[in-house]
Amino acid sequence: MIAEKLHEVEAGIEAARLRRTRVPKEAPVHLVAVTKNHDVAAMREAIDAGVSRIGENRIQEAKEKFGVLDRNVQWHLIGHLQTNKAKQAVKYFDLIHSIDSSHLAMAVDKAAASAGKVQDVLVQVNLAEEASKSGIHKEELMGLLKLVDSLEHLHLCGLMLIAPNYENVEACRPLFREMYGIFQKIKGMEWRTANIEYLSMGMTHDYQIAVEEGANIVRVGTAIFGQRQY
Ligand SMILES: *Cc1c(COP(=O)(O)O)cnc(C)c1O
After folding, report:
1. pLDDT per residue as tens digits for the range 115-125
2. CB 3.0 to 4.6 Å from 163: which of 70, 140, 172, 204, for a disulfide?
3. Range of the domain at 17
């Protein structure tokens, strides 16, 4: 069942990639299977069916699963991170998608330094400036990117966006398009160590539009695992 849904999502990603008009069609798209609130058995099923990247949004849940999963997979932290959890985030996650303040960037840098690790990170942008969402506002983005690039134990790899949950999913398209423009612009800039490679946007309801507009990481949960039970 999970394998079947997974293959549908993979096909959906490929179809969207081939529909691209403004973005190179060849650029590959990575799937992060979002496993929050789903159990380890479901995770194993997905991994055995081909998932190589999983996304979790809470440190405590990730920690519990990490100990028992018994599969080799990349761990992505997609949820909001509090500075007091930076140390654990660095311990468990290969890529942190949710750096959204200088305060948090410095805390993760410090945690990575004491773990002897250079932590791959994305900076999360709140492009629609929704009060309820985390992410840095556009006007402050460049300053945060420069700070992250300057920190020795962070490696900046790109940008992340959570689009608003519009009733009409097409309403997200201009935001995805604007985000791709920002991504291209910063990709073309000179950085100390940053390699601007990833644009993480698109979830179950909007991933096809995100891919059409240039996302190269999508984070999909419900379409693979079904509704979450809270
Ligand atoms: C839960 C979550 C997702 C996946 O959402 P679905 O609608 O289940 O695909 C993607 N990104 C973030 C940041 C999330 O918290």
Report:
1. 999 999 999 99
2. 172
3. 2-225
Is 230 part of a structural domain of the chain? no
C-alpha 192 – ligand 1 centre gap (Å): 31
Give the pLDDT confidence score for residue 11 in this predicted structure: 98
Residues whose beta carbon lies within 6 Å of some atom of ligand 1: 34, 36, 57, 78-79, 162, 203-204, 219-222
Examine residue 9 and state whether it is found in any structural domain, yes or no. Answer: yes
Asked, for residue 107, whether it belongs to a domain, the answer is: yes
**Structure tokens given for 113:** 């330094």
Instruction: State the distance from the centre of ligand 1 to the C-alpha of 114, rounded, in angstroms.
Output: 30
Which atom of ligand 1 is closest in space to residue 36's alpha carbon?
A: 1
CB 148 within 8 A of CB 154: yes
Domain count, the chain: 1
Residues 6+ apart with CB under 8 A from 218: 13, 29, 30, 31, 32, 200, 201, 202, 203, 207, 210, 211
Residue 45 lies in a domain: yes
Residue with tokens 């380890």: 40
Q: How far is CA 195 from the centre of its chain?
A: 16
Distance 221 CA to ligand 1 centre (A): 6
Residue 130 has pLDDT above 90, yes or no: no
Residue nearest to atom 12 of ligand 1 (CA): 78
* 228 alpha carbon – ligand 1 mean position (Å): 10
CATH code of 60's domain: 3.20.20.10
